[in-house]
Amino acid sequence: MTVDYVDAGWAVDQGSLSGKVAGGDVAPPVVAGVDYERILHAREEPQNWLTYYGAYNGQRYSPLDQINTENVKRMVPAWVFQAGTTGLIAGASTYSFEAAPIVVDGVMFLSGWDGWVWALNAKTGVEIWRYKHAVPFDVSLCCGNVNRGVAVAQGKVFFVTANARVLALDATTGKRVWDRTYGDVRAGESATVAPLVVKNMVIVGSSGGEFGVRGHLDAFDLETGEHQWRCYTVPKPGEPGAETWPADGEAWARGGANCWLTGTFDPETNLLYVGTGNPAPDFDGAVREGDNLFTDSIIAVDVDSGQIRWHYQCTPHDLWDYDSIAECILFEQDGRKLLGHFDKNGYFFVLDRTNGERVRITPFVDRITWGAITREGQVTAKVYPDKEGEPVHFYPGPAGAKEWTHAAYSPKTGLFYVPVQDTGATATRRRREFKESIPYWGAGVQVDIEDMAGAISAFDATGEEKWRWRNELPMCASVLATGGDLVFAGEPSGEFNAYDARTGEVLWQFQCGSGHHSSPTTYMVDGRQYIAVPVGWGGWAEGFLPGMLGAGHGSALLVFALPEPV
């Protein structure tokens, strides 16, 4: 029997129901002047946060220094935006606030779960407009009802929706300009990534590796939404890398390797650096013998053609759900163009970003029992779910020694700042026949709720740890570094902390009322620096901190600044 897929239709215009102040429904046309050249030189206008990581290099560093080690203790809340928990699938155990606020000349653009996008006055927090996309109730979501942010350019705001669509909105009104589908929700595909604008394209990646889909990157024309190219991250038979999959059957067609985090970009190499996700099924490797390229890899993609130019696989034949989706931080050392990547598997990889050559590999978490990687890159698996029904315990757990949440790099100190999770898990292999849109894990998994730890750790480019701030709970939120010699990071228990970037000393703390699992950003309006952090605990909490599933979930954006002069 054939069942036709019924579209969810269009949502009620939530902007008309938001009670905004009269005349406040049109934003100034600040995004009209944002183009590739401005994003390329984003750090030359530090008052703005123009793109997901703040700049193409992925450093999550701002040179703003009005707030610094001397005065951060005086920082106070400036305003709060309450997003609420409305939405068909925004249950307390599913949604999470995971975005990175974008700011352009005093206007903030922010995304949330369930297809929400807001435009806010970045100085006062007053809502300007809101958009709500209609997301079908039955969309298959592996790891929470989340969205990681928007991109802006040429008068438009770009974002993806859980039902695998990419949209362009008018940045002044929030009205839809174009809307394109780039994934099949019936097969288990979805989308959570913050888009990246490069040249005349908006680039997005797919989600859904836990449902046995074939991952891909897609590029669309900024103006028209016309599809430009697709890069599949699992090769089909006959393509380079296909020899790393079984020759018979269709394991490759449901191989995973989704790119569900935003990549970084080097205009000089013209390469987009993207991390890929786990193979499918996650824990049952017997049905996909081989290294399974290009899963758990860093891939360098020619941004004009969508072709993979080189790759480096961090965990061949992954049996632990160790996606390599984490950011690829671009930096230079001794005249060499390098890339830094803190992988779920517990190792810090430094590669030459021109050719993918391995420069250095060092562990960055205390407990690694799944296996070992030598400095020469030799991978040896030690503990993994091998026998049906037999539980196996390993470190790190499937959320990794660092989850998707981002590290930061300060060119001022030369240090990387990393949110560390030291948590184990037990996996019991359970072979499952592949069925479209049904979870394809290959195991039952239980993440530890005791004997865990976390840290914010500072490393130099050689992998030497310079300082560590220890926490009883894993650190599950992104880090922000600033020119004021400060590092900002939030805790699962709600505290938002400012650290001395050179020593790790906590200089300021504020209890936000809900755990952190998002990406703070910083900006300046009318000469005043602000620190913005979305707060809202939830999402895939059972995967990275199940002992706090019952914690307050929240859904607010908190913004801090120094007190205004009297």
From TrEMBL:
Pfam families assigned: PQQ
Family: Belongs to the bacterial PQQ dehydrogenase family.
PANTHER family: QUINOPROTEIN ALCOHOL DEHYDROGENASE (CYTOCHROME C), QUINOPROTEIN ETHANOL DEHYDROGENASE
UniProt source species: Streptomyces carpinensis
Keywords: Metal-binding, Oxidoreductase, PQQ
EC number: 1.1.2.-
Lineage per the UniProt record: Bacteria, Bacillati, Actinomycetota, Actinomycetes, Kitasatosporales
Name of this protein: PQQ-dependent dehydrogenase, methanol/ethanol family
Gene3D superfamilies per UniProt: Quinoprotein alcohol dehydrogenase-like superfamily
Cofactor(s) needed by this chain: pyrroloquinoline quinone
Boundaries of every Pyrrolo-quinoline quinone repeat domain copy: 49-359, 475-531
Molecular-function annotations in GO: oxidoreductase activity
